[in-house]
Amino acid sequence: MDDIVIVGGGAGGLELAVKLGRFFKKSDTNVLLVDKNRTHIWKPLLHEVAAGSLDADIDCLDYLALSQKNGFQFQLGEVVGLDRSAQTLSLAAMLDEEGNTVLPARTIAYSKLVFALGSVTNDFGTPGAKEHCIFLDSAGSAQRFHTQLLNEFLKLQSDSNKDKLDIAIVGAGATGVELAAELYKTAELLKAYGYQNVSSARLNVSVIEAGPRLLPALPERIAQKVAHELRELGVSLMLNTAVSEASDKGLYTKQGDFIPADMSVWAAGIKAPEFMKQLDGLETNRINQLVVDRTLKTVTDNNIYAIGDCAHCIMPDETKVPPRAQSAHQMASCLFDNIKREQKGQELKQYQYVDYGSLVSLSSYSTIGSLMGSLTRGSVFIEGKLARIVYISLYRMHQMVVYGKLKTLFFMLVNRINRRLRPTLKLH
Ligand SMILES: Cc1cc2nc3c(=O)[nH]c(=O)nc-3n(C[C@H](O)[C@H](O)[C@H](O)COP(=O)(O)OP(=O)(O)OC[C@H]3O[C@@H](n4cnc5c(N)ncnc54)[C@H](O)[C@@H]3O)c2cc1C
Q: What is the mean pLDDT of residues 129-154?
C-alpha cells in the first residue's frame, strides 16, 4: 500500500491533495495532507485580510471538511523534521493556548512525500525587524495586523493630540504596494462608518524600497503606472532606500535617516521555512528551498518532491521559477500527472513554467497589469475592469480546483449576497 503524504495545504499543496484524493479514492493508495492550521486561506488575499476588506473567517476553507469530500485524509500538525532512511516525518507536539499538550510529538510514515510548505518573510537578519515589524506571511499575522490597524485608527479618531497615522511598509513588491492602496480604502470606509476624524489625508503610508523602482519583477510600464496611482492616493514612495534597523518608533535607513511609524510591515523578501535548511541531507539553496529537477523530484531523494514557494526549480533558459500562486498551481498539476505516471511506470513529464502575466490590484481604485500568451503574442498591458476580472479569476481557478465549478459559482453568489448584507469592512 502506498502512502502519499503532502505537507502544506496552500495554493499548491491543497490543489494536489484534492486531485490525488479524488483520483486514488477507490484504490489502496492513501493520500494524507498535513498542515499546521485547521483552515486554508489563499495567500494572495492576505493583504485584504490585513486591511479588513476580506473576512478570513468567511473566505477560509476547512481542511477536514474538504478531506472528507475529496478522498484524502487530513492531519493537523507542524512538521519539524524528516528521517529519510526510516521514511518518516516528525511533527511537533501540539499545545493549546495555555501551553497544555493537546497531542504529543509524533511521526508519520510515507512512501512518497511532497513538500509544499510555501515561504515565510525574509528579513535578511535586519536588527529589530522580527520584534517590531509585522510579517504578512500567514492568516494569523494578517489578522493581528488588522486588529492593530483598527486600534491605531481608534486612537487617531479619539486622541486630539494625534495628527496622523504613520504606517511604513518595507518592500515595494506586489504585497507592499497592494497593501498600501488597501489601507487608504480602509481609512475612507472607517470615515463612512462614523470615524469622523479619520480620513485618507490623515493617513501617511510610506513604501520603502532598496532598489531603484517598485515592482522589480514586473514590466517597467506597470511599475510606472502603479507608482503614479499610489502617489495620487498619498503614498510616499522611498526608492533606493535600504532599511538598516527597525524599532518600536519606526525604521532607520542605511543613509542615516529615520522614518517614524506607528506600525511597520516587512514585505521585502521570502525564504522557505528555516527548519528546511537541515532536512536530513536534502539539497537546499541559500533561501532554504529544496532543489528539485524538472520532474519536481528533489535531486537528493527519489521519493521526495517539492512544489511552490519552497521549491528551487530551474527552467531550460536558466531562469528560476518565481514564488507565485500561478507557479504553485502549475506545479501541482504537473506533479499530479507525474505521480500517476510513476505508478504506471511511465516516463515523467518535465515541468515548464508558463507566465500568464502579472496583475496588481490597488484596492477598488485600480487594477493594472500585463497578460502573456500565444494569442497576445507577448505582453499586453491591461487595466481597469478587465484587469480586475482577470485578477479575481486567478482565485476562482484555485477555488474551482478545490470545490469544482458548481460550488465555486455558489460561492461567487454568496459573496455578492454578503456584500449587501455585511459591512464592506471587517470592523472587529
Ligand atoms: C500578501 C501576499 C500577496 C500575494 N499576491 C500574489 C499575487 O497577486 N499573485 C501571485 O501569483 N502570488 C501572490 N503571492 C504569492 C503566493 O501567495 C505564493 O507564491 C503561493 O501561495 C505559494 O503557494 P505554496 O503552495 O507554495 O505555499 P502557501 O500557499 O504559502 O502554503 C503553504 C502551506 O504550508 C503550511 N505550512 C507551513 N509550514 C508548515 C509546517 N512546518 N508544518 C505544516 N504545515 C506548514 C501553511 O500553513 C500553508 O497552508 C502573494 C503572497 C502574499 C503573502
A: 96
